[in-house]
Amino acid sequence: MTHTPRATPPPADHDATPPVVIQLEGVHHRFGRHRVLQGIDLTLRQGECVALYGANGSGKSTLLALLATLLTVRQGQYRLDGLDVTQHGNEARDKLLFVGHQTHLYGHLTPVENLLFFRDLRGLDLPESRLRQAIDTVGLAKAADKPVQWFSAGMRKRLALARMLLAHPRLLLLDEPYSALDIQGVHWLNAILTDYLRAGGALVMASHDPERVAALPHRPHHLARGVLSPMPLPQPPLPEPTPC
């Protein structure tokens, strides 16, 4: 398995503040009379990761769905690269990639065929060899021509994430990305995401696994009763005293 992260030149001014990728201001959302999000404010810059924590039903998936344009922001403002997403939804969707619990893979197709479909859907000018390289990078080279319907949940998760290597999205949205991955898969995913952030990507993920997210540079936030609050970064454990 080879690992070939995207090479991106560093910015000319290393002291410049990275540009803002997403800006949420006063975002509310409700389902009927049930208020799910209340006044969400969030700024995410290039190269940053925000991890969302909270109990089931706290609104993490709803917030991700709003960021992914699967739900419409009806109260508040959502800007992606300066674009008002409510006015420029199609252009915004070309800048992001969402990988949730549903991988949206076609079981009767092979990994190569699934990525060919994704390539054509996104209008990417990539040869099949580049698709196979991405499949190799996520550790599925030996299964590249087998129907996805026989894949384990972890293999499907890897293939879904291979789309990130092709599209190089400006914004990556992940809902419980560590689910169905073994220890090796967790290390692989964190390496891929670290490279993505170093190359200037912006990442928002919802997770119940702070220990696994800890390997990434990130800003933790807690969502409860529709309110998003920053959390302090976990402190590393103190070293054991050296015996005399």
Word description of this protein:
By secondary structure, the protein is of the alpha/beta class. The chain has 2 domains: about 20-95 and about 170-230, 3-Layer(aba) Sandwich (Rossmann fold); about 105-165, no CATH class. About 30% of the residues lie in helices and about 25% in strands. The strands form 2 sheets. It has a 6-stranded mixed beta sheet with strand order 6-7-8-3-9-10, with helices on both faces. A 4-stranded antiparallel beta sheet has the order 2-1-4-5. A hairpin with a 2-residue loop joins strand 9 and strand 10 (about 225-230). It is globular. The protein starts with 19 loop residues before the first strand and ends in a 14-residue tail after the last strand.
Oligomer: single chain
CATH class of the largest domain reads Alpha Beta
Number of helices in the DSSP assignment? 7
- N-to-C series of helices and strands: EEEHEEHEHHHEHEHEE
- Helix amount, in percent? 25-40%
Distance between the termini: 46 Å
Structural class: alpha/beta
Number of strands: 10
What composes the largest sheet? 6 strands, mixed
The largest beta-sheet arranges its strands as 6-7-8-3-9-10
Tell the overall outline.
globular
Give average pLDDT, whole number: 89
List the domain count as a whole number. Answer: 2
CATH architecture of the largest domain: 3-Layer(aba) Sandwich
Which parts are unreliable, with pLDDT below 50 for 5 consecutive residues or more?
none
Strand content: 25-35%
CATH domain fold name of the largest domain:
Rossmann fold
